[in-house]
């Protein structure tokens, strides 16, 4: 299966991407990983991307799409692939279609913004070990103190409420047209399915929804 996985920051997309990848034995492909791999291998496209990245410029969609075509032609994609965080925009989705890259299924992990804000703004981290807590769902024994070392926990800058709201606004602005595009295409293209999965609940329940949908 050739799948696109969508979901707002904090919706649990990373966890479910790994589950789908393992469940179907298909690689999980993100543009960031793909770019880094192409640059490290020194491919022609990777070298072009490296020049742009070193200048601090965005890699244009046409180059990203060429990298995608190269990546999905590799042996590990013979049985399919999972795009994680790609396409991000309507232009990229149209370019994917124009390149003749068929998508069997688009899955969106649905979580309300208020729930995401609560999830992310409640996270606390022990910097040295990477241990993560949540003030509501997984609190430390002593407020803002790591259980094992007694050292202080921090809130990452990306997790403060104002930043989370900004990230969600950008996601919705970019992704809403994308969602409409794939919902409409699922009605007219044979085999292309658009699936919404409730991302609130325990991980096993969410995974069971995805298995049934697939």
Explain this structure:
This protein is of the alpha/beta class and 214 residues long. The chain has a single domain (2-26, 79-213), classed as Rossmann fold (3-Layer(aba) Sandwich). The chain is 48% helix and 14% strand. It has helices at residues 13-24, 31-41, 44-54, 61-72, 90-98, 113-121, 161-188, 203-213, and strands spanning 2-7, 28-29, 81-84, 105-110, 123-125, 132-134, 193-198. A 5-stranded parallel beta sheet has the order 2-3-1-4-7, sandwiched between helices. A two-stranded antiparallel sheet has the order 5-6. Helix 1 (13-24) crosses helix 8, helix 2 crosses helix 4 (61-72) and helix 6 crosses helix 7 (161-188). The mean pLDDT is 89.
3D shape? globular
Number of domain units: 1
Please mark out the parts with pLDDT under 50 across 5 or more consecutive residues, or reply none.
Answer: none
State the fourth-level CATH superfamily.
P-loop containing nucleotide triphosphate hydrolases
What is the count of helical runs? Answer: 8
CATH topology: Rossmann fold
Cα gyration radius (Å):
19 Å
User: Which structural class is indicated by helix and strand composition?
Assistant: alpha/beta
Beta percentage is: 5-15%
Mean pLDDT: 89
What's the helix-strand series?
Answer: EHEHHHEHEHEEHEH
Q: How far apart are the first and last residues' alpha carbons, in Å?
A: 9 Å
Q: For this structure, what is the CATH class?
A: Alpha Beta
> Tally of extended strands?
7
Helicity range:
40-55%
| Spatial ordering of strands, largest sheet | 2-3-1-4-7
Question: Brief overview, please?
Answer:
The protein has 214 residues and is α/β, with parallel strands linked by helices. The protein has a single domain (2-26, 79-213), classed as Rossmann fold.
